[in-house]
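User: Structure with aspartyl-adenosine-5'-monophosphate, tokens only please.
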Amino acid sequence: MERTLLADLAGKKGETAAIQGWVSVRRDQGKMVFFDFRDRSGVVQGVTLPNSPAIEAAKEVRNEYIVSVEGKVNERPEKNRKAGVQNGDIELEITNIEILSKAEIPFELGGEVNLDTHLDHLPFTLRTERSRDIFTMQASILDAYRNSLRAQGFTEFIAPALVGGDAEGGAAAFKVDYFYDRTAYLATSPQFYKQIMVGPFERAFTVAKIFRAEKSATTRHLSEATCLDFEMGFIQNEREPMAVLEQAVKDTVRAVAEAHSDVFARFNTTVPVVPEAIPVFTLAEAQALVAKEYNRTIEDTNDMSPEDERQICEYAKKNLSSDFVFITRFPTKKRAFYTYEEPGEAPLSRGFDLLFRGLEINSGAQRIHNYEQLVARMQERGLDPKKFEYYLQAFKTGLPPHGGSSTGLERFTARMLELPNVKEATAFPRDMNRIDTLLSTDKKD
Ligand code: AMO
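Assistant:
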């Protein structure tokens, strides 16, 4: 018999159907055996009556077994109906049950486990409703972001993960043994390549893997992350990439709100609030505001601390009805070498960050597009322009004034659902202490 997805069972009341899926729960009640089944489309309850030809087979089945089941789709008696539950008004009366795969489970799925136990068992724990929700949300974010940028005239390209040098000229890079005894690196950012792509496309974006060898064991750092990067030509200043990003954020939030109200509810959070215009503060304004509002002194006036980020977001939520805040006018020296300085406000730059629910999820800027100025900036920073000759070709052959930004997909997802740790929003996180399994048992995060 052809398989029916659980979401389509309700249309088969009174008929016989064949389903395939997982056993979320098995319950024995007297001589009957009940099951909660799940598949990619949903859930249904099954019952094996004492006189069913499947009763002996049903007794063998345990939680998380994968089964192929046949049965009759019955309407449940009025008193047993469950309002608000998918298929809460039907039940599959099982006539045949075949085990497709047995399961030896380390613990019950969906119970409370600490993050390390969760991560140690991802091939199993990714099956929880919570994890499936997180990665369903992530897939939707990715989709919506791509759609938004395409609608804004951007062309997607694939950036390389193996590169000849460190793009940011500072961020710690992982070394790779390459052919001919050469050293390659894992890309810390698709930065150079997206700028190069302004040449052919004017507006280009990429979803890129980035690898960072920073020794930061925090709730917001990964060694391997996914970035949503775009770059655009013919801008006046950083406000244009900020506007593109704002539109992408609005489109993404709208799409996930439409598709996943149930997920927001299960995570006990709400759809983020994006006002018509996301509030913009300069670094100095933001820090002065939190210092006053929270009666504290600012330690580092060159950059936002995690506490500054949390507080300015709390302020914006309360007073400006926004879950997002832009910060601008960081000192040029604190930004990557290619960052454009604001001519009227040197030594401040045309760089910006976007904060979301207390965390930086995006960085961007207008870039230096003039070849001579870029070479001069490299030299100021002690970087050897010779090592950047390949990238510099784009400038030698001419690039329009341009800028762009990069959003961390895992951070965006984590804040969307208010997850405390970015690792939970990464299907297979790599950090200082872990590649799949812990690298050392005495170095837990
Ligand atoms: P930046 O280094 O700020 O900027 O990175 C951009 C965004 O990527 C995410 N991110 C990370 N997420 C998890 N773990 C990490 N270790 C990590 N590092 C970065 C963050 C961050 O906001 N080339 C510039 C971008 C640009 O100017 O367009 C850059 O790489 O969400």
